[in-house]
Specification:
The protein has about 375 residues and is an alpha/beta fold. The protein folds into 3 domains: about 30 residues, no CATH class; about 90 residues, no CATH class; about 230 residues, no CATH class. About 50% of the residues lie in helices and about 10% in strands. It has 14 helices and 5 strands. A 5-stranded mixed sheet has the order 3-2-1-4-5. The radius of gyration is 26 Å and the shape is elongated.
Length: about 375
């Protein structure tokens, strides 16, 4: 085909500078190369494999079995990348956050191929395994979740702990880029998470710019509408003072005075701490979302959701927590008190303190 292009320009009656440039490009174009690929599962032992991919070989093979039909290429022409290699190189990106060229050197692929695979697989994970992230669905699951929270600090009827964390990103550019600059002066996606007592992510909202407040995200979320409809009965969430007090969302007191109030605050804070620990484990397991995500803004949400799904899969498979390899700055939104709380919610919280935590306080002193 290259000779035909050259012959076309040679036979033409007139030649322009543009024609000469095209001919020169065809003659000097680099030939396509196929690099050798290392069999990662066989090359690394179990310890080294886990350090590099944040999952054991058993869990990776389970993931491969779930996704291989969606990743398999129609033919093996041009050394098509196998589903297993697609999963491994994507996990490598999640585990490091490196630019695609680094992973390309490791897997013997061009960086553009790596980029396409990462973004395609992230979307496949979000579609095929989205059921891994879910709120308790039935009475048995709700009771189990409540019991696990109760064992932490005896706070009753808790179904989840809620908070937001910022996922750092590059400046997205455009007219709306400043919407992504948060109050700590870096660009981010403000991501809402509801976590259970085992650090599993029950609900995730990852589409809001960094300048949006936590309470705004919650007020616009589907999970709030479910609580408003009463889908979870008398169960409640635990949040910090950045959220408005509601019957189904308990926040800490500003200045506790009595012993029952202090006991309420202590129990609320200790129980709510699971969502902060979830952020730490999630970002330690997949440092790509703990450091700055260097991808296009349209590809950021699938990566955040995919890593959250894989985080839950790791918990379900009882994977170890990776050792922390670097210290990330505290990028969570600072607590901001909402001054306009409804009186009915305050009465409900006061009843909980006086009827439950006062009795609990008496039991602990006796």
């Amino acid at each position: 085909m290259n000779l035909n292009i050259i012959r076309h320009f040679e036979d033409s009656e007139s030649s322009s500078d543009d024609d000469d440039i095209i001919v020169e490009y065809v003659l000097n174009r680099r030939p396509k190369t196929f690099r050798d690929r290392i069999l990662q599962l066989e090359f690394w032992d179990d310890v080294d494999f886990f350090e590099r991919y944040r999952m054991s070989k058993t869990t990776v093979l389970w993931l491969h079995n779930e996704l291989k039909n969606s990743l398999k290429r129609p033919t093996d022409r041009n050394h098509a990348v196998s589903p297993l290699d697609q999963i491994l190189l994507t996990l490598r990106f999640y585990a490091t956050g490196n630019i695609q060229q680094c992973s390309g050197d490791l897997f013997g692929l061009h960086k553009s191929t790596i980029c396409r695979i990462i973004h395609h697989l992230s979307r496949v994970i979000c579609c095929k395994l989205r059921s891994v992230i879910k709120m308790p669905q039935n009475v048995e699951e709700i009771r189990s979740t409540i019991a696990k929270f109760y064992n932490i600090a005896k706070f009753p009827s808790v179904i989840g702990a809620i908070d937001c964390t910022h996922i750092p990103i590059l400046n997205p550019g455009g007219n709306n880029s400043e919407l992504y600059r948060n109050r700590k002066d870096f660009f981010s996606i403000n991501t809402q998470v509801i976590a259970d007592a085992e650090l599993r992510i029950l609900d995730l909202v990852a589409r809001w710019p960094g300048s949006v407040h936590d309470s705004t995200i919650f007020n616009a979320s589907e999970v709030k509408r479910k609580f408003d409809r009463g889908d979870f009965g008398n169960c409640c969430l635990l949040g910090d003072r950045g959220y408005a007090l509601k019957k189904y969302l308990m926040t800490p007191l500003i200045d506790p005075q009595s012993q029952p109030e202090r006991l309420y605050n202590e129990s609320q804070i200790r129980t709510r701490n699971v969502v902060e620990r979830t952020f730490g484990v999630w970002k330690r397991r997949f440092p790509a979302i703990g450091s700055k995500l260097r991808v296009d803004i349209k590809n950021i949400q699938p990566i955040i959701v995919a890593t959250a799904i894989l985080h839950n899969i790791c918990i379900n498979h009882k994977e170890n927590i990776p050792q922390e390899t670097m210290n990330y700055p505290d990028i969570d939104m600072p607590i901001a008190e909402i001054s306009t709380q409804r009186q009915s919610e305050q009465i409900y919280r006061n009843q909980l303190i006086q009827e439950y935590f006062a009795r609990l306080s008496n039991e602990t002193t006796e």
